[in-house]
């Protein structure tokens, strides 16, 4: 009879690891087929300009409706898609679909598309971008690319060059999840972003966490001096909204304004907002 923990842990862990690996392989197989089976869709979350109180555009967020698992979160499948390089065709589909849908929105509403560093690193990314704009008819000025900082971009001059090219075309470039990576500040030095998106972890912190409030205000000030817009992500409560307004950020996004919406609900959302803005202005005494 063996008394080593080794043999015991072998018996205990192996079936569990086996099960996990099997589940992972199944997910991979399903992910490879998902695009062809039309299991992806996009939802759109409003981005609100704080000065005007109006929606300036929407962020496109990818959804995978799995036939048996139901909706799978992008945080779960995007990393796998990146590993398998499936992010390239999937990302292309996202870009084309988002441009196509946004072309039907009223001017000057923008659409923000998340792009992975692997996508931008592809030699034909600029062509894909041009093609998506051209075939949809969406003006470049109404498209924004959101890039999460990742070592890939800093280490690959080609990716940076492509981003410069996109900006020359008139496409805007935002830095997503600012403050969570290890090199956020050096990124600001290496590329002229149009917008900094402040990560939700700073926005949703405990209201008594004065450090987070200070950090958000400091990022807003940084944005002002660099000529970049600053958007606070993940605003869920009135209290957070007040703090963001006071911090000097230029825009906000979060469940408080709206959950991500299916494309067919965007019209109603904007109509509601226009009605509310009219009422608010009528309620306000003149000159205030
Ligand atoms: P992200 O780009 O930072 O997107 C914001 C995420 O926060 C979204 O999650 C959104 O639904 C969620 N969110 C928005 N407001 C709130 C709020 O008030 N509270 C909370 N708790 N969450 C909020 P989602 O849709 O699950 O996407 C997760 C991440 O997956 C995205 O983070 C992005 O990095 C990635 N992703 C989504 N779509 C795409 C895509 O088409 N391509 C690529 N490459 N990545 C994508
Ligand atoms: Mg994003
Ligand atoms: Mg983010
Ligand atoms: Mg993110």
Automatic annotation (TrEMBL):
Coiled-coil region list: none
Domain EAL: 24-274
Organism: Afifella marina DSM 2698
Residue window of the full protein shown: 270 to 557 of 559
Protein name per Swiss-Prot or TrEMBL: Diguanylate cyclase/phosphodiesterase
Highest taxon, organism lineage: Bacteria
């Amino acid at each position: 009879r063996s008394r080593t923990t080794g043999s015991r842990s072998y018996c205990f862990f192996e079936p569990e690891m086996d099960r996990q690996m099997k589940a992972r392989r199944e997910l991979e197989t399903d992910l490879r087929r998902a695009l062809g089976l039309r299991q992806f869709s996009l939802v759109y979350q409003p981005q609100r300009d704080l000065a005007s109180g109006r929606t300036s555009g929407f962020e496109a967020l990818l959804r995978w409706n799995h036939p048996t698992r139901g909706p799978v979160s992008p945080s779960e499948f995007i990393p796998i898609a990146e590993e398998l390089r499936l992010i390239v065709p999937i990302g292309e589909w996202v870009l084309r679909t988002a441009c196509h849908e946004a072309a039907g929105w009223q001017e000057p509403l923008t659409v923000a598309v998340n792009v992975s560093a692997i996508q931008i690193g592809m030699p034909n990314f600029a062509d894909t971008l041009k093609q998506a704009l051209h075939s949809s008819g969406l003006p470049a000025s109404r498209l924004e690319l959101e890039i999460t900082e990742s070592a890939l971009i800093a280490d690959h001059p080609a990716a940076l060059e492509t981003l410069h090219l996109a900006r020359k075309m008139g496409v805007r470039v935002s830095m997503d999840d600012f403050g969570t990576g290890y090199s956020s500040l050096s990124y600001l030095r290496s590329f002229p972003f149009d917008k900094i998106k402040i990560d939700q972890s700073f926005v949703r912190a405990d209201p008594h966490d004065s450090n987070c409030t200070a950090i958000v205000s400091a990022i807003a000030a940084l944005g002002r001096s660099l000529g970049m817009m600053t958007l606070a992500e993940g605003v869920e409560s009135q209290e957070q909204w007040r703090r963001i307004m006071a911090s000097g950020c230029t825009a906000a996004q979060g469940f408080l304004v709206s959950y991500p919406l299916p494309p067919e609900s965007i019209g109603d959302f904007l109509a509601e907002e226009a009605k509310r803005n009219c009422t608010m202005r009528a309620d306000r005494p003149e000159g205030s």
